[in-house]
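Q: Could you fold this chain for me?
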Amino acid sequence: MAKIKNNRAKTILSYVVIVLAATLAAYSLDTFLIPNNILDGGVTGISIIVSKVFSIPISLLVILINIPFVYIGYRNLGRGFLIRTIISMLTFSFALNFFESFHEVTDEILLATIFGGILLGIGVGLVIRMGACVDGTESVALVISKKTSLSVGQIVMIFNFLIYGCAALIFGIDRALYSILTYFITFKVIDLVSEGLEQAKAALIVTEKGTDMANEIYKRLGRTVTRINGRGLLSGEKEVMYCVLTRIEVFELKKIANEMDESAFISILEVSDIIGNHIKSTKKYKTKKSTTRIKEV
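A: Sure. Below is the predicted structure, expressed as structure tokens.
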């Protein structure tokens, strides 16, 4: 009973953080960036451009354009990701509409770029840390990354620079350059807030339920693991599992571990480079009728 209450409290707290963080992200856009024609990247950037050209509310566009992105994220990250993301996007859309009537904080372009980027990065970073997103670009980039040699960060960057190219044609080259500066500021802050300087993470998991947990990781995240036999000084025989994943999947990994083995010990490590395709999950593993569904490397 205590465990259920504790999990429920953590879930409610994560939802509260998501709501507050998404609201902060919307505030930064409505009072710093949008009034000065500075764009965010991803779906939000597309929404700003379309809104300026066709006079459609940004809050509505953010929801409509994100629908296919959210579906893709749900297919790859599961129901928990879907629920958290719906909450964050609805909050983000409502807050964009609410703050739209607020007066801009500053019309100094450089101040708007810096402080708008910082606040946006804090908001989006907290949402990612809670296992959700306000922009579906990263979830789609994750899918593309699994099928190509490009990293998630590289795909997002290419996507965003296409958006900034359109911004240069519509708003002028100076606003496009300020938007790029905002993007780099936001990206850096997101990394710091969501506890990651790289897209890729490595997890070392020490558990007594290695096979069951490995199956669940594969089922819900599409990630295979490498199992190593270990022995604790006091705890005896243990299984040590090594898994490479992306930062947006870390939250779900912790959730899996908490459900499968509360005594599991998890260490999240930075990955500076990846050689080979261990991080890429492929369809061929789904066709195997193995009872363990674990890829040993």
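A (continued): The beta strands are 200-207, 226-232, 236-246, 265-270.
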